[in-house]
Amino acid sequence: MQKRHHPFHLYLDEAVYFVSARVYKGEMVLNTAEKRQLVLEAIQTNIARFKGNLYAWTILPNHYHVLFKLPEGKELPKLMQTINGRCAFEINALDQRRGRKVFQNYWDYCIRDQKDFYTHFNYIHHNAVKHGHAKKMGDYSFSSYRYWCARKGENWLISCFREYPVVGFSEHEE
Predict the structure, then answer these.
(1) Residues 6 or more apart from 110 whose CB is under 8 A from it?
(2) What is the average pLDDT value for the chain, to the nearest integer?
(3) Which domains can be identified in the chain, with CATH numbers?
(4) I need a labelling partner for 40 at 20 to 30 A (CA). Which of 18, 31, 73, 148 fits?
């Protein structure tokens, strides 16, 4: 009997993915603005390199979430390995901890429809509040909330939350 990979991954072309990556053993390795900026730049650079579209992100001290579209689903493992590998190398250099395992794994989910998209979009923006890193979503700098606020306005974001609330979202808890 063949052993299945856990978590199971779907590789669909032109799919929007919600991805969570957790730091090994939940340690607070991404504990400085410099490290979180490094992760953000790796996410932005590599999603663009893989010709994807980045929609939302948040980077917390022990995990991050991203929402993006990828033209070729089979590239997802390579994309995540590139992001997490580059970040691990650079973070370990900053901490003088060469060889330390930084990321445990990643979990991905294919978005099904508009409601699913905006529920995940809102989940990402609310994550820093959920984990106690900010009182309001706009207070947290390592999230795309401020980007969308500047682009579409805070009223647009509030309307997204009203229409697609983040309740009963336990399947994506850390």
Answers:
(1) 10, 12, 15, 16, 17
(2) 90
(3) 15-165 (3.30.70.1290)
(4) 73
Joined tokens for residue 26: 């939940």
Residue 54 pLDDT: 98
Q: Among candidates 143, 158, 27, which has minimal Cα distance to 95? A: 27
For the segment 82-104, the average pLDDT, to the nearest whole number, is 94
Query: pTM of the predicted model, to two decimals?
Result: 0.89
**Tally of CA atoms within 13 A in the half-sphere of 132 that contains its CB:** 1
Question: Residue 17: which of 7, 27, 29, 3 has the closest Cα?
Answer: 7
CA torsion sign for 64, 38, 128, 122 is negative
Question: What is residue 173's predicted lDDT score, i.e. its pLDDT?
Answer: 41
Say whether pLDDT at 43 is over 80: yes
Residue 51 zone, left/alpha/beta (φ > 0; ψ -120 to 50; rest): left
Q: How far apart are the C-alpha atoms of 18 and 12, rounded to whole Å?
A: 13
CA atoms within 13 A on the CB side of 77: 7
